[in-house]
Amino acid sequence: MYRSILRQSPSPSRFALLSSRFASTSSKQPTLKERLAVLIPQEIENVKATRAEHGKKSFGPVVVDHLYGGMRGLPALIWDGSVLDADEGIRFRGKTIPECQKLLPKAPGGSEPLPEGLFWLLLTGEVPTPEQVTELSKDWAARAAIPEFVEELLDRCPPTLHPMSQFSLAVTALNHDSAFAKAYSQGISKKDYWGPVFEDSMDLIAKLPNIAGRIYSNVFGKGKLPSIDKAKDYSHNLATLLGFGDNEAFVELMRLYITIHSDHEGGNVSAHTGKLVGSALSDPFLAFGAALNGLAGPLHGLANQEVLVWLRKMQSVIGENASDEAVREYVWSTLKGGQVVPGYGHAVLRKTDPRYMAQREFALKHLPEDSLFKLVNQVYTIVPDVLLEAGKAKNPWPNVDAHSGVLLTHYGLTQMEFYTVLFGVSRAFGVAAQLIWDRALGAPLERPKSYSTASIQKMFANKN
Ligand code: FAM
């Protein structure tokens, strides 16, 4: 049976083999685009073979509750970049977060993976060489400038406009220079879509630090934006634009943060929105702008802001260094007020999110004595029991958002309204990778069927 190169986790020996092949055929290692150009025809054949063999097979029943229940768990999408297991958590192309931390190239002197490597992995299923990652850093730095009219657009936003609204506005406006939109209007053939979508995706990712930095500076009065350093990696430049480039621990945090927030399989609101909008052949800027609007919701990415708001409110009500009993009571009062406990629960996960654990490990290494970190730990020992006792949430354990704000606050990035922007910068990596593959594989317009309640009643009348 046909087996895709993309599904294989490259073993160290295979990786060595690939590297030596590159070395023997050319002194310059292939770029990401060159590598994709090789992989895409193979994957097209792989999908063809899979559909020919399994295309008419049933995937289990669709029940009426799926239609009313937010399609929870309904098998409906294909995305090879990452897969989420309810108990184990996310794997990027088959690799867990600790494996990515170990295998992906690092900055000199750094110990967290460079997100450039994660993007390469998401797109190709292969671990890039340090040289390939450096080339990607350089490529993104060269594409980083944003058009003057987008700068002006951001400068004219009132500081009271939420940073996520400003973010999506600016990203949508980048469509002005979309290579794909231009190529489409000039009659590009379907089989070539992925090329300009790749270029747009690279531009999109590259320009996000300048957009995020400008929003941060405008909204929180941080003054003139520094320039990016073309010799530095993506996370370093993002940190610089936020005013934290001299803090090596913060730069390391950004590398880890972007890596773990990049992708969470295809069905979450932001990833799915990007895919859906892209299926109409909207270019990557329009598709990702839409994804950002989904990420801005409090049940999704805005939860990282909500966690800090909730923790601070709790401290103002029960004081700092409160007893476990006082924290427990506060959690109950949140639930009794008809609100959710932000940062807890998940639509798929049924265990503590490994993204939470990766951030906890980082905190234990870099800020074990931080008082807010101690509060997060205290909350971790209390909330799951309360949620279990309340009996509604299917997953009482913390998700990624329960931890991220504490780390950012520790280094002085205390403006919680900005936190989801950083989530958005990271999520671009997954959405962009998915858009490139969707166009390469000719993914069709998405168009599921909706029903009315009356039609459901009629369909099942007199049937048990
Ligand atoms: N606090 C209180 N109630 C909760 C809860 C929480 N943390 N998590 C779930 N529930 C409730 C939920 O509201 C629902 O109540 P109703 O039956 O009254 O509607 C019930 O438990 C069953 O929900 P579920 O099946 O366990 O979860 P869902 O799949 O419907 O929703 C979440 C998943 C993430 C939206 C939900 O757990 C939640 O609201 N959590 C708090 C917000 C949050 O942290 N979101 C971030 C998720 C994160 F991973 C991300 O996307 N970035």
Detailed description of the structure:
By secondary structure, the protein is mainly alpha-helical. It has a domain at 303-410: Cytochrome p450-Terp, domain 2 (Orthogonal Bundle), CATH 1.10.230.10. Helices cover 58% and strands 2% of the residues. The protein is built from 21 helices and two strands. It has helices spanning 12-25, 32-54, 64-68, 97-103, 115-124, 130-142, 148-155, 163-173, 179-185, 194-219, 234-241, 248-261, 269-279, 284-295, 303-318, 324-336, 354-366, 371-390, 401-410, 419-440, 453-459; strands at residues 82-85, 89-92. It has a two-stranded antiparallel sheet with strand order 1-2. Helix 12 (248-261) crosses helix 20. The longest helix is centred in the middle third of the chain and has 26 residues, at 194-219. The chain is globular, with a radius of gyration of 23 Å. Residues 1-26 have low confidence and may be disordered. It binds alpha-fluoro-amidocarboxymethyldethia coenzyme a complex. Residues 72, 268, 299-301, 303, 335, 340-347, 392-395, 399-401 line the site of alpha-fluoro-amidocarboxymethyldethia coenzyme a complex (FAM). Belongs to the citrate synthase family. Keywords: Transferase. InterPro entries: Citrate_synth-like_lrg_a-sub, Citrate_synth-like_sm_a-sub, Citrate_synthase, Citrate_synthase_AS, Citrate_synthase_euk, Citrate_synthase_sf. One of its GO terms (biological process) is carbohydrate metabolic process.
* Spans of at least 5 consecutive residues with low confidence: 1-26
Overall CATH architecture of the domain at 303-410 = Orthogonal Bundle
CATH superfamily assignment of the domain at 303-410?
A: Cytochrome P450-Terp, domain 2
Examine the coordinates and then state which fold CATH places here, giving the name of the CATH topology of the domain at 303-410. Answer: Cytochrome p450-Terp, domain 2
Q: How big is the Rg?
A: 23 Å
Oligomer: single chain
Shape: globular
- Order of the strands making up the biggest sheet: 1-2
CATH domain class of the domain at 303-410: Mainly Alpha
Provide the succession of SSEs.
Answer: HHHEEHHHHHHHHHHHHHHHHHH
Care to count the β-strands?
A: 2
Helix coverage percent: 55-70%
Instruction: Give every kind of bound small molecule, once each.
Output: alpha-fluoro-amidocarboxymethyldethia coenzyme a complex
What is the arithmetic mean of pLDDT? 94
